[in-house]
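Q: Hi! First time doing this. I have a protein sequence and I read that you can turn it into a structure. Is that right? Here it is:
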Amino acid sequence: MGNGFKFSKNNKHPYVFIAPAVIILTVFSIIPIIVAFFISFTDLDLKGLADWSNISFIGLENYSKLITDDLFHKSIINTLFYVVIGVPLVIIFSLGIALLLNYGTSSLFKVFRGVYYMPSITNIIAVAVIWGFLYNTEYGLFNYLLSLLDVDKIPWLGEPTIAKLSLIVLAVWKGIGINMIIFLAALQGIPKSYYEAAEMDGANRLQVLFNVTIPLLRYATFFVTITTLIGWLQFFEEPFVMTNGGPLDGTISMALFIYKKGFQFSEFGYAAAGSFILFIFIITITLFQFKLRKSDTEY
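A: Yes, that's right. Below is the predicted 3D structure, encoded as structure tokens:
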């Protein structure tokens, strides 16, 4: 192909460039997945870590135990609750804010970009402290504002369903920033000629939004949807630092369940089985999303 770059077995330069990424992926992703898979068929615990001779192969016992574990069932239901509500909210709010900021040209809108992005880079412990005061039932800001309207105090973190919704609000607030930046980058990459053609055809702003802007954001939307979905399936930080899975295990997620079994109760084999089931969930849903995307493209 002329003077173009050619790949061949004798040309080792491409492999040198991709080697660091492949090594990191292998060491920190592929190998841990394989190790966790084998551990899930054992009864590994603290005694097993101290002396490998204490480790026994127990086959599918961990998986059969998970099937009958009510707490694991609750963690799956809670995780689906987080995903079904949280993922659409993050996508809608991040896209909406990106659209509003993209229309603005003054320096004030650049300040707001930083304001919306700041929560996503703020330490989760600092966030938990502030939101813990906001959600406090007795002297929190939210209940104080409600008291001005003669509304009874709401147990933001004291009732399972309300606690889940409270964690979703916190997670959405924290997760908007990164996705907003992605949408902003995609918006600024749209050629102005599309808008000029739409203006010449007499399209109003709403028509331009739904017929030009949003369709041209399909790749960014797909990327944000996939990454956000994977992140919410691994929902961990918020329930861990805010409620520790309570009240009555009402906010425990699959990731928090795995953490508790592995690092609090030292049931590493059982936790590995749970982590592999979560891994299967993530892979299945991601492949399903790619299949939907491929069918839309073909259409």
